[in-house]
């Protein structure tokens, strides 16, 4: 603001000085003409007045057309400067296509914007957290655009291999544009931070991904922990059926006292009467019945049954310090950069022989010392939908077309019941 005011003040001073000088010069010319002095000084003075007039008019036009001139200067800087032109050409990349492979549904492509060709991201903020673009695109490090840059800039043919700046190769993802947009709208509608991950249970392909968070933050759904909550009751029910325990009638009171100092209640402290567990425990998500199931199974099956089951479902049990390692083989991918950068931390659960009764009860309903990633839970859900076979997630359509055999983590019968 101060610089602008000083600039205008200096300009006004120069105009005033110029106008005064021009006025004095005109008066001198007029007096010289009246007194019939020598003609050459008069002609010289008239020429100076004319030049000053031309300069004044030109400068006034520059002030009036300042915005147009600046726009022209920027166009030259982009297209007229050969150094900038070469840099722009070097940034050309292939398109990022969605699950349909159709250009009109591309997740990242080139289009004409404001008279020039630009890289555009049709999903906007809906896809920015994983695809790229959006607000703060320059600081997003965990995106397909960044991590698959080598593929997107790779030559498409032998002819392009000899070119300094090849057009780049397209990359087709398993993400579907419409599903991702819908996931983002649903997530925004909650008004809360979170993430949505949708997988194809038959291939492990991520069909939709949406997450909140600032551009510089790691993706909430992949790299950051969250408590699983009642989703964890599915693991409890799976262990019940996998252990051969029969369906049993249990009460679902509004609350249950686990220890003299620990009480666990249902949501809203609502009782649901007598029910057949595990199935009917899952329908209203009865906390008190889940606690009773967990305590009963600990008594009948022992701690090791829980430890082994949780490990097979993708949740790492521990007893000492919490593990901080990433799951190096989590993704099915051809990109070493993606595998290294986007490997999620281990979903973990602190459980062992010394786990107290109150903590054991909390774990049964997905609370307490249990930390999971959204993609870790999604992988477990994918195994349920795939008849008990867990597949590594992938975002690459090429890998999804040929999914690996996977690991059986529960029987087909248990998966069908869940």
Spatial gap, N to C terminus: 66 Å
Helix content: 40-55%
| Tally of contiguous helical segments | 19
Please provide the count of β strands. 15
How many whole angstroms does the radius of gyration measure? Answer: 35 Å
Which structural class fits the helix and strand makeup? alpha+beta
| Mean residue pLDDT | 87
Low-confidence stretches: none
Strand content: 5-15%
Spatial shape: elongated
The major β-sheet equals: 3 strands, mixed
Report the CATH C-level class of the largest domain.
Alpha Beta
Fold topology:
Blueprint: H1 2-34, H2 39-64, H3 66-80, H4 82-90, E1 96-97, E2 109-113, E3 116-120, H5 125-128, H6 144-147, H7 149-152, H8 158-161, E4 171-172, H9 177-190, E5 195-199, E6 206-211, H10 220-223, H11 233-242, E7 248-252, E8 255-259, E9 262-265, E10 273-277, H12 279-282, H13 287-301, H14 303-312, E11 316-318, H15 336-342, E12 348-350, H16 357-364, E13 370-371, H17 374-385, E14 389-390, H18 397-400, E15 407-408, H19 412-417
Parallel strand pairs: 1-4, 11-12
Antiparallel strand pairs: 2-3, 5-6, 7-10, 8-9, 12-13, 14-15
Helix pairs in contact: 1-2, 3-4, 13-16
